[in-house]
Amino acid sequence: MRVERVPFRLISAATAAILLAACGPKQSAPPPQAPEVGVVTLEPTTVPVVTELPGRTSAFLVAQVRARVDGIVLRREFTEGSEVKAGQRLYKIDPAPYIASLNNAKASLAKAQANLVSTTAQANRYKVLVAANAVSKQDYDNAVAAQGQAAADVAAGKAAVDTAQINLGYTDVTSPVTGQIGVSQVTPGAFVQASAATLMATVQQLDPVYVDLTQSSLDGLKLRREIQEGRLKTSGPGAAQVSLVLEDGRVYPEKGKLQFTDVTVDQGTGSVTVRAIFKNPNRVLLPGMFVRAKIEEGVNQNALIVPQIGVTHDQKGQPTALVVGADNKVELRQLATAGTFGTYWVVSDGLKQGDRVVVQGVDKARPGQQVKPVPAQLPPTPASGAAAGGAPAASGAAPGQPAAQPASAASGA
Questions:
Q1: Contact at 8 Å (CB) between 90 and 84?
Q2: Where are the beta strands (DSSP E) in 137-270?
């Protein structure tokens, strides 16, 4: 088999052509375009400050009906769960032994009164006779002493009659207050005792009703400090309005008023009790219900609010936001929030007026990356029209201004 040799000069020429082609000018790739992100520019706005607290309802008045005399219950004169009036008779205890005691006390009083008449007449006679030396001074003194003892017996007899009448009156067990009566603890035929203070029933006044709320001492301290420093203004000279959220999430239609704040901090829980009062005409609120109350404490006139879609959380659970700087580079900010305002977070630290916060295209932006900021197009909120009286939360957020809802003071994100 014959192999033909390729001339060396041809191989060199081909190699040189390949090398020239490899070293030729390359075509440069177009630079990557900066991603477009939607931003809102923060501006101060007026936000009502609301403290949201858990609590439980309690009756305005609670009266335990207990036996005040011993005896057999003859009858019950009310329907369980019904409304009763103050002074209405609830039970009848057998009065026979107390009628007998009253009659005995009256008889003893009559005897003492008759004895007083006799001793008084004798003392008067002896007074004349002792002046004529017809009786001794000792006899006269004895007569006066007997008169005084008879008068004391009359007074004791009257007290015994009063006691017997009181005990007889206690056989009619009446309601001490007007309200709703609960389950009867005794039935006709039961024996009740005054010494054991037998519980017979409980009457509760449910209109109005108290709501006892629990607030941490730290939150109360912060609130008082903000008012003193002028960052918050009180709503007015009247009592703060309180709204109530029931266990099923519905808002109670009646507004309440603050009554007082306890002056003692519970050392076990570090909290204080705040009491509010609510009208309860339809008996919706029952004692012991768990509720959440929102107390309108004041107004923050320089609040910075950020749409919730622009706030995320890091691995430690701290709220963060992406902010576009003056050079259109993204930076990550750690935030501190002071509650919510509709669909917005109220930011107390980490942002300032004029900051551009990324709320759309957050997944495209990274800290240090160059971006193209454009005004965010946020969907309108259902209550955006109701917020027309307040300043807008952020420029670029006009289509979705914050709903006219108070800011929750619970620390948020």
A1: yes
A2: 172-174, 179-181, 191-192, 199-216, 241-245, 256-261
CA angle 380, 383, 384 (to 5 degrees): 50
pLDDT grade, residue 201 (50/70/90)?
very high
Distance of CA 263 to CAs 47, 160, 340, Å?
A: 29, 47, 29
The structure tokens listed for 239 are: 């009592």
What does the pLDDT look like over 311-339, one tens digit per residue? 888 888 889 989 988 888 888 888 888 77
pTM of the entire predicted model = 0.62
Tokens of 297: 């404490």
Q: Domains in the chain, please, with CATH?
A: 38-47+301-408 (2.40.420.20), 50-58+209-299 (2.40.30.170), 70-93+171-197 (2.40.50.100), 96-169 (1.10.287.470)
**Residue among 322, 214, 327, 330 nearest 273 (CA):** 214
* CA 197 to mean position of chain CA atoms: 34
Residue 107, token pair as written in the block: 């008889």
Q: Is 135 helix (H, G, I), strand (E, B) or coil?
A: coil
- Write out pLDDT tens, residues 82-96: 999 999 999 999 999
Question: Which pairs count as long-range contacts for 159-166, CB under 8 Å and 24+ apart, including other chains?
Answer: 160/105, 160/108, 160/109, 161/102, 161/105, 161/106, 161/109, 163/105, 164/98, 164/101, 164/102, 164/104, 164/105, 164/106, 165/102
Structure-block tokens of residue 36: 């477009």
187 within 8 A of 73, measured Cβ to Cβ: yes
Q: How far is CA 105 from CA 98, 101, 108, 341, in A?
A: 10, 6, 5, 74
Give the whole-angstrom CA distance, residue 276 versus residue 297: 13
Tokens of 401: 């201004």
Q: CA-CA-CA-CA torsion for 248, 249, 255, 256, nearest 10 degrees?
A: 70
Helices 96-131 and 137-169 sit at what angle, rounded to 10 degrees? 160
Question: Cα separation of 99 and 104, whole Å?
Answer: 9
- Note the pLDDT tens digit of each residue in 131-147: 888 888 998 899 999 99
